[in-house]
Write a structure and sequence with these properties.
two-stranded antiparallel ribbon, elongated, 6 helices
Length: 212
């Protein structure tokens, strides 16, 4: 896209908008990998997507990688490095999405009004020219392309992942209260030994009276 030919008043919005669009495409690829790993349908995946932030998606995929035994340790480390790099790059995305921006006086770059106030206060000057934006676009395109190659790898290992995730079948003779964790969470009700409620059963310490 020829950004230089745009009206300077529209150029900042076009440059930032292009970044955010490419980020959205890349993040959608993260979600496709998660959907593949858990065999989610479109509705289930959409609900999870709407309720998880980028760092959550990254954590999920980083956890799935070592479970996929079809992946070597070297491959796992390479993918883990990529996911951590994407998570770190989210600071740039947050700047694009949340900080005020405007064209510089010479109409050659976009300046962001960034405020840092976590422990120390600072208002650094952050300026991106068209070349910086285009470099960022290439990075996001690369992230998206690499993530698209992760999906088939995860799909291949999904059967193994689902197999180890299945809980053991309970014994046919086991009652509901003996089903592992359920038994400790919900024990069967017991009679309170200190209860004042009357009982028709004789006390084991009281001998029954002889009948006349």
């Amino acid at each position: 896209m020829d950004f230089e030919s745009l009206d300077p008043r529209m150029r900042p919005a076009a440059l930032v908008g292009m970044f955010l669009q490419k980020w959205a495409f890349m993040e959608a690829e993260l979600m496709r990998a998660i959907r593949e790993a858990f065999g989610l349908n479109l509705v289930s995946a959409s609900i999870i997507k709407a309720n998880t932030q980028l760092r959550d998606k990254v954590h999920i995929l980083r956890t799935i990688l070592p479970i996929t035994t079809l992946m070597s340790e070297g491959e796992r480390k390479r993918w883990d490095k990529l996911l951590l790099e994407i998570a770190g790059y989210s600071t740039i995305r947050n700047m694009m999405a949340h900080d005020m921006f405007y064209m510089t006086d010479d109409n050659q770059a976009v300046s962001f009004f960034v405020i840092k106030a976590k422990g120390d206060f600072d208002v650094p000057t952050v300026t991106w020219d068209i070349a910086a934006f285009e470099s960022a676009y290439d990075k996001l395109d690369s992230y998206q392309e690499q993530l698209s190659k992760l999906r088939p790898i995860i799909k291949t290992g999904r059967e193994y992942f689902q197999a180890i995730a299945q809980p053991p079948a309970p014994s046919p003779t086991a009652g509901i209260w003996s089903l592992g964790l359920l038994g400790s969470l919900f024990p069967p009700p017991q009679e309170n030994p200190g209860s004042d409620q009357p009982s028709d059963r004789p006390s084991p310490q009281t001998e029954p009276k002889p009948q006349e």
